[in-house]
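Fold this complex.
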Amino acid sequence: MLKQFRKRVASSLIVASIATLSSAAWAADLEKIHFIVPGGAGGGWDMTARGTGDVLMKADLVNKVSYQNLSGGGGGKAIAHMIETAARQQDTLMVNSTPIVIRSLTGIFPQSFRDLTPVATTIADYGAIVVAADSKFENWSQVVAAFKENPRKVKIAGGSARGSMDHLIAAAAFKGEGFDARKVRYIAYDAGGKAMAAVLSGETPLLSTGLGEVLEMSKSGQVRILAITAPERLAAAPNVPTLTEMGNNTVFANWRGFFASPGISDAKVAEWNKVLSKMYKTDQWATVRDRNGWIDNYRADKDFYAFLEQQEEQMGALMRELGFLK
Amino acid sequence: MLDGILAGLSTAIMPTNLMMVMVGCFVGTFIGMLPGLGPISAIALMIPITYGLDPSSGMILMAGVYYGAIFGGSTSSILINAPGCSSTVVTAFDGYPLAKKGQAGKALALAAYASFTGGTLSAIMLLIAAPALARVSLSFQSSDYFALMLVGLSAVAAFAGKGQVLKAWMMTIFGLMLSTVGIDKGIGVERFTFGLTDLMDGFSFLLLAMATFALGEILFSILKPEPDTSAEENSALSEIGSMKVTKEEFKEVAPVAIRSSILGFFVGVLPGAGATIAAFLSYGLERNLAPKDKRDEFGKGSIRGLVAPEAANNAASSGSFVPLLTLGIPGSGTTAIMLGAMISYGIQPGPRLFVDNPEIFWSVIISMYFGNLVLMVLNLPLIPYIAKLLAVPRTVLLPMIIFFSITGVYLVSFNTVDVFIMILVAVIAIFLRLATFPLAPLLLGFILGGLMEENLRRSLMISDGELSFLWERPITLTFTVISALVLITPLLLTAFNRRRVKKSEFVDDCD
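Structure:
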C-alpha cells in the first residue's frame, strides 16, 4: 500500500500549507511538532502522522503541528534529510514503520534506525492470512495440509514486492509449520487493493496482508481471516485465531512509530514521550485509533530501540533463509 | 433497490449536498487546470475538510473534486500542451494542435461536451448496473490485463503519422525500456538505477509527458522560430473566443463520444487499468475506426482524437467507483485515498454498502449527474476567457509555460532532481523531434510497459511458467486475437491491394 501511494501521490504542497493550522492553547505541553512523512498524502504513514498530530492539537498537548511529505527512495530520501539537516530539526518527528528495518537490511537505503533517534512506536498492525469467502480453505490447518501435499498449488498474494513485508509474513507463517520458507509461492501485486482483487477473483487462493486492511471486509462477509500473527487474540477481532494458539509460534507486528534526527537530547525525547503517553489516554485518540483500525502498541525510547533490534534480527534471519540477503 | 435510489435522490438534492457538488466541481476544476496537479492532490486537499461533514456530503464533495479535476486537467493539455494529470495526457495529442490552429475555443468546448457525455453516460450505467458490475471488475485476472495491454500496444500505429510506423515502433520500445527503470515491482531488485536514490521509484509518467510535450514543444519553438505570422495570428486569435461547433462536427463526434464513454467506463471498472489506459485505448480504437481521410488528421488536430480520450477518461473516473463502492477495492491512487476517507467515517465499502447505507451509495452516484451539469454550466461560459490565455504574446506565454510545467513536476515529488531529469528528457525529446520521431508512442510504451510486465510475470508465476494462460482463459484469448488482428490486418490489406492492382493491370493488358 505504501509503495503505491509513494509513487502516485502528488499534492503535498497545498496539504502542507493548509495543515499549518495553529490553535492558540494556553496549557500545551509542547510548542510545536513538525512531522515528516516519507510517503505521499493519503498513505499509511501520512494517515498516522496526521491522525496523531490532529489528536495532539485537539487535546491541547501541542500548540502547533505541521506536516511535510517527502517521498522518494522507499523512504530513504526522508531519512537522508533528517540526518543532513539534523541541526535544524529540533522539533521534527519522522513517521516510519517496519519497512525501515527491511529496507535498510536489503540496502535500499544505506542508513538504518541506528542513524536516527527512535522516539516511540505508537500503533501496530498484525499480519493476516486471508481467503475469499467462497474459498475451499476453512481454516489454517487445511492450508497447511494442502501445502504439505503440493506447495506449488498454495500460492499466496501480497501487495508488495518479493522480499518485502507481506512476503516475509507469509514465509514466516509457513516456516513456523516446519516448512522450507523458500517453497512459498508468493505473487507480488503493486498494491494491497489489487492483491485483494486477485483473491476475490480466484486468481490466487490466499492473501498475506495487514489485519487492519481486512478487518472490516471480513465483518461484511467478503473474506475469511484464517490466522493472524498476534501473540494472543485481539479485542478488536475476538473470533480470529492466532497462529500461536495453533502451535505455530510466528509472531509479527508491523509497528508504526516516530523517529527524530540524530543527536537529539534525551530530555527532548522524554518530552515527546510525555506528550505521546498523555495523548494515549484521551478520548480523541480512541476515536482516531478506532476510525483507522489501529491497535495500541506503545513502546518508548530504549524499549523501542530494543524492539527494533529484535525485529531486525527476526527479519534478517528470514531474509537470509529466503536468499534475499547473503 | 428503488427505495435506495429514492433515498439517495433525496439525500443528493439536499441543499448542502448540492452545494458540495458545486464546491467540489469548482475546486476540482481549478486545481486540475494547474499543470501537474491532478485529482489526487485535489482530493488530498479536501480530506481535512470532509472530516467535519456527514459521510454522504463528504463523499459527494470528494467525488465532485475528482471528476472536476479530470475535467480541468484537459484545459492545460489543450491550451499549453502541459497535461494537468496523467489521464489528460492523450487529450494534448490533438487538443493542442487544434489550439495552435486557432481553434482553442472550439477544442475546449468539445472537450467539455465530451467530458459531459462521458460523465453522464457512465453515471447512468452506474445507476443501472453498479451492483452487477462488481462481477465484471472481478472477472479480470493478471493474464487478461496482460492481453489488454497487448491490445493497447497493437494500437501504436494510431499514434504515428503517415509513413512513420517503423519510427513509432522504435519509440514504443524505447518507452517500454524506460518503464523498467527503478525498483522492480516483482522481486524488489533495482534496475538501471546506477545506484541513484532518485531513480529508484522510476520515472514518473507525468514527468515524461511534461518534458516531451510541454517543455519539448517550447524549446523546439525557440530553436526553430516560425516565420513571423503576427498578422495571421491576430486573425486566428480573434476566433479563439468562438466556440461554435458546427452541426456536421457534432454529428461526426457524437458516435465517437458514445463509444469512448462505454469503453472508458468498462476500463475504469477494472481495478488494474484506470483512466489513463482508458484514454489511450479509446484514442487507438477511434483512429482505427475512423474513415481513411479522417485518420490522417489524428495527431494534427482531429476533433475525433480530442473527443475520444476526453469522454473516455471521464467515464473511466466514474467507472472506478464500481470496485471502490461495491467491493471496497481501490483501482487507483485517487480511489485509494477516498477509501481511506470512507473507512475513517466508519463506512466500509463493499457488497453490503448499498444494503446498509443505501443513501450514501446512491446519493454519490446521483450527485454525479448534477456534478456533470455543474461542470458544463460552470465551464462553458468561462471558455472564451480561459482561451484568451493564448492571446498573451509569445514572449510572455513561453516562459509562463516553462514555469508552470517545471513547478508542476516539482510539486509531484518535491524533488529537485526530477526537474533536472525533466530538462534532460526534454533535450533528448528535441533531438528526437528533429529526426521526426513521434513522441506519443514513447508515452504509450511507457504507461503500458510497467503494467504489461507485472501482469505477465504474475501470470507466468501463477501458471507455473507455462504459456498456456494465453489460450486457457477466454478473456485473455479474445484480447490476444484482437491484438493479432489489429497488427496483421493492415499487412494483409496492403498485400491484398497490391495483388488487386496487379490483377487489374493484367486485365488492362488483356484489353
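The CA atoms of residues 147 and 185 of chain A lie 10 Å apart.
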